[in-house]
Amino acid sequence: MDLSSLRPPKGATQHDKRRGRGMGSGLGRTAGRGEKGQKSRSGYRSKRGFEGGQMPLHRRLPKRGFTNIFRKEISVVNVESLNRFNDGERITPERLLESGVLKALKDGVKILGDGELKRKLTVVAHMFSETAKAKIVGAGGAAEVLAAPPAKRPQRST
Questions:
Q1: Overall pTM > 0.85
Q2: Are 121 and 89 in contact (CB under 8 A)?
Q3: What is the CA 158 to chain-centroid distance, rounded?
Q4: Residues of the chain above pLDDT 70, percent
Q5: Half-sphere exposure of 34 toward its Cβ, with a 13 Å CA cutoff?
Q6: Which pLDDT does position 157 carry in this prediction?
Q7: Residue 128: in which H helix or E strand, if any?
Q8: Do 122 and 89 contact (CB within 8 A), yes or no?
Q9: Are 78 and 118 in contact (CB under 8 A)?
């Protein structure tokens, strides 16, 4: 067996209907497009969401809310996921990123108190919840607060 002898299984492929090839083909005259009108013409293509001249749904519905361009996106890490590190280690946002705990560093890192911490760690982050701070200190570690990252000004489009 070689690549030149490969064929699709029997019945898997069918010939296209040859439209507009005379009355004997069964698809002559209008070629399956019906009678007159916009849809029967060549080159017809309707726009996405077109409803035949009726006001389209996306324009009938009201606009709601707004997008805050100054919003801060905070990456969150639960105390439970810090158990993968060794005792006495210093955990920084960069360390969390390279170990795969975080997918991306956004505008800051917040440590949340879900789960149990079984290691003595020094955790450095931008924010801590009260329960997270208590669990880190309770396990014999320390929680250091980083200064907020510099604010990014939104880019102005011209």
A1: no
A2: yes
A3: 27
A4: 94
A5: 6
A6: 61
A7: strand 127-128
A8: yes
A9: no
Q: Strand 109-112 to strand 142-145: parallel, antiparallel, or no bridges (unpaired)?
A: unpaired
Tokens 């497009």 -> residue: 33
CATH of domain 76-145: 3.100.10.10
Name the nearest CA neighbour of 113 among 92, 86, 82.
Answer: 82
Distance of alpha carbon 134 from alpha carbon 122, whole angstroms? 13
The tokens 């170990």 sit on which residue?
99
- CA nearest to 124, candidates 90, 87, 83, 73: 90
pLDDT in tens, 15-60: 999 999 999 989 999 999 999 998 899 999 989 999 989 999 999 9
Report residue 117 as tokens: 């911490």
Q: For the chain, give every domain's residue range.
A: 76-145
- CB within 8 Å of 11: residues ≥ 6 apart: none
